[in-house]
Amino acid sequence: MELWFTEKQLTDQEEASTVSFSVKIKEMLYRERTGFQEIAVFDTYEFGKMLVLDGIIQLTLADEFIYHEMITHVPLRAHPAPRSVLVVGGGDGGSVREISKYPAVERIVLAELDQKVIEVSRRFLPELGAAFSDPRVEVNIINGVDYVHSMKGVFDVVIVDSPDPLGPAEQLFGATFYQAVCEALTPDGIMVVQSESPFLNRRVVRQVCENIKQSFPGFYYYLAPVPTYPGSLWSFAVGSRQHNPLEQKNAFLPAGTRYYTPEVHQAAFVLPPIIRSIFG
Amino acid sequence: MELWFTEKQLTDQEEASTVSFSVKIKEMLYRERTGFQEIAVFDTYEFGKMLVLDGIIQLTLADEFIYHEMITHVPLRAHPAPRSVLVVGGGDGGSVREISKYPAVERIVLAELDQKVIEVSRRFLPELGAAFSDPRVEVNIINGVDYVHSMKGVFDVVIVDSPDPLGPAEQLFGATFYQAVCEALTPDGIMVVQSESPFLNRRVVRQVCENIKQSFPGFYYYLAPVPTYPGSLWSFAVGSRQHNPLEQKNAFLPAGTRYYTPEVHQAAFVLPPIIRSIFG
């Protein structure tokens, strides 16, 4: 018997999916519908263990480190001395794992909607979920939008590690939310959001850019390949109150990264014309 | 009715494919089996027209320019004054189109095994195939290995724009062939070869590196994302007799590129640890 998982990928072009990506499965380790979404964990031949939410691949062990290193180390090394960091979403623990490599970070707050994602990650994906045992981590099971609106001037870095902009996550791509994040940051704080594929989701990327620019004096955009995400290249958008994220003002460099280096950090901000043209 | 094309992607991990990529088809424009391979041209919803050889996507109009700009402009701008250029494979005309942007190039030779690929491209993919009408282009319908062995010291740049290393194309990844290319080059000539995915085909990449190093004093490796190729990121290997391809010694810069810029050229050579580790 052959078991395959297929992701019908969403793009700007058509209402229904016209592109799909399929992965042969060794074993389905877990599957459950929570009040928020359907969670599944598979063991795959090519990519090792894989977390799927509502039919969309969130991570595989073969490439999650690229995404998680790039969404965390770029802002954490751009800010001169981050002590307090908020992750919105990120219940798998991958971002928390990377943030916990900074000894000077005193407080790592997670605002995750679905407690079950954290439980599943701790149980089936300890490569990421084990990060929750760091005593600096404070987990809040809450709508990230509500949490951010309740905070003022407390975080040096906010990382929006969200799913695609569908259902409840759509708010996490809106101008109102980015304004609230800006207010939740310290005066020289930095926000990074995962901002989809610059090839397949150009409309989303353009909207994120316009929304961030409404609240933040500095907008920046950088790239990293994530093989199991749609469209071959993933993107991250930065809203910065003061620091230029290309400057790498934090002298601390975490050891043992598999994708991130200071040179990769610089190169990730180099945008080809086809991507620059998203921003008009 | 829905028509989908599925590519079963080949990787290092398993004999049989465990990953596949599917594209919804508007129309099948052409399909024929030649003496060498099965050629198909589709019109797709997401990526426009698409050329498929033996079930493997060779190009789509949505992203072919990334591949073709990066396989040509990097060596052509690294060599101080390329006048004579050979393309091995490349019957679609995409590499020829980019090379023909250099007024100082006097001679563009193509060594393609299957005349039918050129005919199909001229007829169905004029966005690439029209390049063959440049009077500087000389088409040879010949096994690229045989052609290269017959040439000594005549080309400033050789571009190996080959399919995957299966069937006849496998020779184009071998040490004997690279030695012959080295001898076909002028004393300061540069070779670039498409070298598969650094995520899914690490074994091929390592072998190409070792084989090139046997003949060339300089080995270099660079990256570009090609959304419709397996594994999200594509790679190119350079064998250079003298010039460092990072130096961009050719002052001529072609206008109107959609992916390539001098900054992208530099950034493409920045390798993350997970990719550097291929080379031990």
Helix residue percentage of chain A: 25-40%
Which chains have the largest interface?
A-B, 43 and 43 residues
Q: Strand pairing plus helix content of chain A: what structural class?
A: alpha/beta
Q: How do the helices and strands follow one another from N- to C-terminus of chain A?
A: EEEEEHEHEHHEHEHEHEEHH
Low-confidence stretches of chain A: none
Apparent shape of chain A: globular
Strand ordering within the main sheet of chain A: 8-7-6-9-10-12-11
How many helices of chain A does DSSP assign?
9
Rg calc of chain A: 18 Å
Mean pLDDT of chain A: 96
Number of strands of chain A: 12
Task: Write a short abstract of this structure.
The structure is a homodimer. Chain A has about 280 residues and is an alpha/beta fold. Chain A is about 25% helix and about 30% strand.
